[in-house]
Amino acid sequence: FFFNTLNSMSALLLDRRTADAEGMITKLAGFFRMTLAADPLADTSLADELTLQKAYLEIEQVRFPDLEVRIDVPEALRDACVPSLILQPLVENAVKHGVGQSSPPCAIEIRAQTSSGVLTIAVENRCGPRRAGARPSGTGLGLHNVAERLTHRFGHEARLTAETLPPNAYRVTLEMPLVRP
Predict the structure, then answer these.
(1) First-to-last CA distance in the chain?
(2) What's the pLDDT at 175?
(3) Beta-strand (E) ranges in 39-177?
(4) What is this structure's pTM?
(5) Which of 52, 66, 162, 179 allows an S-S link to 104, with CB 3.0 to 4.6 Å?
(6) CA-CA distance, 92 to 145, in Å (whole number)?
(7) Which string of DSSP letters, residue by residue, matches 7-32?
(8) What's the pLDDT score for residue 137?
(9) What span, in angstroms and rounded, lies between the C-alpha atoms of 11 and 79?
């Protein structure tokens, strides 16, 4: 992510789009400030986690101008407690393995809902067909790490599911107990 962002800033400067490059630098600095302030071992509010993901996706939208971002989280769930940085690997995967390897249009959607004391959060990417020469990549380590963090925090009350959706979509769903501050 960091090197891709630096390369994007360099390309903007070469194209003499200095205002866009400056905006990207500011967004990157803000994103790093938020991630460094986050305690990865503590819970955070879903609102704060979403703010971090929005900052990350704003940077990626400079790299991928056709990327559409949708966040559908009811106001009543924004104070729910979630493990800090739990969505970051999922959103990064959606960009790297979905948006980065596909033809536009692409969209990433983050949704949350609750039922019977369970908080469900889904991160989904829908894109055009894979670009010629793009091969599926990844080892599943990011998903494994997120699943392990959920199990460590909530035991068997939490789970992660991942599924491919036709024609060109992928969804990761987290389920965990709804915890309020």
Answers:
(1) 32
(2) 98
(3) 43-45, 67-72, 81-83, 106-115, 118-127, 159-165, 169-177
(4) 0.88
(5) 66
(6) 13
(7) HHHHHHHHTT-HHHHHHHHHHHHHHH
(8) 64
(9) 39
143/140 Cα distance (integer angstroms): 5
Rounded CA-CA distance 57/174 in Å is 20
**The pLDDT value given to residue 135:** 64
For residue 126 the two structure tokens come to 């829908």
User: Distance (Å, rounded) from C-alpha 66 to C-alpha 99?
Assistant: 10
CA angle 150, 152, 156 (to 5 degrees): 70
CA separation for the pair 56, 71 (Å, rounded):
13
CB 84 within 8 A of CB 123: no
Give the pair of three-digit tokens for residue 108. 């990433």
- Low-confidence spans in the chain with pLDDT less than 50: none
**Paired strand residues for 177:** 118
DSSP code, position 58: H
d(CA 51, CA 55): 6
